[in-house]
Amino acid sequence: MNNKINTDEFGIFLLWAGIITSLISYFAKSSFLYTLGFVFFAYAIFRAFSKNIEKRRLENNYFKDKFLNPIKKSLGGFKGDIKSKRNDKDHKYITCPICGQKLRIPKKKGKIKVKCPKCGSKFDARS
Ligand SMILES: [Zn+2]
Questions:
Q1: How far is the CA of 19 from the centre of ligand 1 (A)?
Q2: Whole-angstrom Cα distance, residue 46 to residue 72?
Q3: 45-73 as b/e, with b when 16 or more CB fall inside 10 Å?
Q4: What is the pLDDT of residues 47-58, one digit of tens each?
Q5: What is the C-alpha to C-alpha distance for residues 115 and 97, in angstroms, rounded to an integer?
């Protein structure tokens, strides 16, 4: 990441939040939202030119940890799940016998039919 101007995830979030809030305030004619949008922008600009890089970095880490990661986790696709939940108690990881794609199946379901999302082949698996 370059430090010429501090653009990080939190900064981008603030900019988008500012844009969205301003747009909504325009249509909703809400001065509260207008002010809020302005605050988002002001903070984004403040952060972008802040010399206190360490503090901005901590802020960004906090933002990622508390806000971005939970969202990513809930939206997270299959791949992210496999990486982060290798020892998931409720699921078992198997490999597609046709293409080798890693698949996650629910545990304790006995013999189940699995359809591979990659190659589309169907096979039986024991969980
Ligand atoms: Zn497959």
A1: 43
A2: 26
A3: eebbeeeeeeebeebbeebbeeeeeeeee
A4: 988 889 899 999
A5: 11
How large a percentage of the chain has pLDDT more than 70?
A: 85
Task: Output the CA 13–ligand 1 centroid distance in Å.
Answer: 37
Domain ranges of the chain: 9-75, 80-126
Residue 78 has pLDDT above 70, yes or no: no
Count other C-beta atoms under 10 Å from residue 37's C-beta.
21
Say how many Å lie between the CA of residue 125 and the centre of ligand 1: 13
Closest CA to 15 of 35, 36, 53, 45: 45
CB 80 within 8 A of CB 72: yes
